[in-house]
């Protein structure tokens, strides 16, 4: 039951076989789709394991590799993408009941499509969000394990409900889409992930609202003395990758996130390429890409323009390679803040190469809270162009969000920070306003550092 019957309703569909394991899992959906008259290629699939592939000319039921074509099918976003050697198994979310009219809640259809994609035995299974729809889903975790090679391909628009008022009360407000426990998964496409973040940015608790109210002299909308108002403040990260490895994210446009656009934690071997991330300059906490507890990360060829850190690198990040990235408007590329609440923090081997940072308050920043432990080392900034940036490079070991931070004696050790050529032979005179004062600087490593176990990482 189920899969074979469902195919009867698919419009202009040829059929690919995605291996076994789908049988009995996908739900039959009753809503006939436009067109009707799907076709079912016989043979194989003795357990009814067929699932749909998108439009190919109806006559094509050969064993040739399917080359997806317009008008309704998958169009590879990147013409350079080689045709898959094997026939890709494409599961269009519409085949699982998704409507894509911009208002219908398509969450259930996406869950069913994911379940089928994850159960597929094919070496290249594609969950397709087609280009002619705007799909709305609520907080969803797409979890594995699934067979490596799974592609979540967004050509249309994918978005959450609009703002906190429309968020289902039972849904997590800290994250929207989570990819978890996956190996060898790709998120890509020529489409847009639209965060609909504005109503989250305007929550009474957000500092952005205070700044704006002060600018417009509208004191009725803020707390006493320019403070923020109380109230729920949690806002979702748009796309979170958790406990996964061998991930690729490429080609998408991702915009207006309620909070971080991307967050990778507990991952390894991540490649981000060709993303366009965009949010307004005054959108609070909308970091472009946040990485923590993640190793071997490449972030290449991307443009990020937003209201907070362009890329932020948190504790437990090792071997992060950032190349050909353009950052605008926000707070630049940031390592930290590290060591908050006296925690141990370690970051090593971060390279930023061929980057452009413009119209930003900061360029490259390492910020550690005092009282923390651990170390930041092996940081290279090479060929970074800054235009209209207020603070180009900041190493701040006294990071503090308000003015009431206590003085503490431990700190995260920051070492081996270099440009292409490390700075040498710098002469400072007492007349220069330096922080800390020049008398605090010393040659070499302090004895206390050399064998302090608090500063050891791994
Ligand atoms: C506002 O600031 C004034 C002057 O600094 C202070 O006396 C007053 O207690 C503050 N009010 C609140 C509610 O914090
Ligand atoms: C960075 O850009 C240059 C010039 O477009 C290109 O040759 C190079 O391959 C890019 N680097 C990466 C890691 O993609
Ligand atoms: C940083 O990179 C160097 C050179 O590749 C390597 O020897 C070192 O182990 C790395 N450090 C960490 C903490 O990964
Ligand atoms: C911390 O130490 C600095 C420098 O000694 C001093 O100026 C500042 O007042 C101290 N702050 C607190 C909160 O004790
Ligand atoms: C350091 O800079 C001074 C002043 O520019 C120069 O005279 C001196 O040769 C430099 N020393 C080295 C080791 O480069």
TrEMBL record:
Residues 26-43 have a biased composition (Basic residues). Belongs to the glycosyl hydrolase 28 family. The active site is at residue 331. This is Polygalacturonase. SMART domains: PbH1 (SM00710). Residues 24-85 are annotated as: Disordered. It comes from Dichanthelium oligosanthes. Keywords: Cell wall, Cell wall biogenesis/degradation, Glycosidase, Hydrolase, Secreted, Signal. It is found in: Secreted, Cell wall. Residues 1-24 form the signal peptide. Gene3D superfamilies: Single-stranded right-handed beta-helix, Pectin lyase-like. Its main location: secreted. One of its GO terms (molecular function) is polygalacturonase activity. GO terms for biological process: carbohydrate metabolic process; cell wall organization. PANTHER family: PTHR31375.
